[in-house]
Amino acid sequence: MTKSTKKKHVVSDILVNEGLVPEDGQKVVRLLCGRGNNLHEVEELGESGERFLVSMPSRYRKTVWVKRGDYLIVQPIEEGDKVKAEITEILTRDRINFLKKQGIWPVKDENEEKSDNEDIPENTNRISAPCESDSSESDD
User: How far apart are CA 88 and CA 100, in angstroms?
Assistant: First the structure.
């Protein structure tokens, strides 16, 4: 299978699942950081807030990238001691909004009140100088 064909199938797989809700046993988690070798540290949403490692399935490797703060649906696996689940779906913004409207979203997110423009993170590569006005001092 060529790269473009694989990417087409993976992207269509993500988009087909837009209207589905998580099955029994599946959890909605937030990605905290990557640990290497297709392992990621996640935090379970809800009251427990448990942190654990999840693995990226081979169908997503080198095709779909995830970043800190992304929301995922994971399926727990029994044979792992350190790796406790496998990523089954990557949630898009539309899917998250659908789950919130259905009342399935695990917690009230503090970012829920933010508008779409506030979702853009601050650029840490530039020093933001505070704007100071010397209106109290006169140049006379």
Answer: 19
Distance of CA 86 to the CA centre of its chain: 14
- Contact 86/57 with Cβ under 8 angstroms? yes
pLDDT in tens, 35-74: 999 999 999 988 788 999 999 988 888 888 899 999 999 9
Q: What is the 3-state secondary structure (H, E, C) of 73-108?
A: EEEECCCCCCEEEEEEEECCHHHHHHHHHHCCCCCC
Average pLDDT over residues 14-43: 85
Q: Is the dihedral of CA 15, 31, 40, 50 positive or negative?
A: negative
Q: Could you give the count of Cα atoms lying within 13 Å of 25 in the half-sphere of its Cβ?
A: 9
The residues near 49 (Cβ < 8 Å, ≥ 6 apart) are: 43
DSSP-based three-state secondary structure for 1: coil
Is beta strand 71-76 parallel, antiparallel or unpaired with respect to 83-90? antiparallel
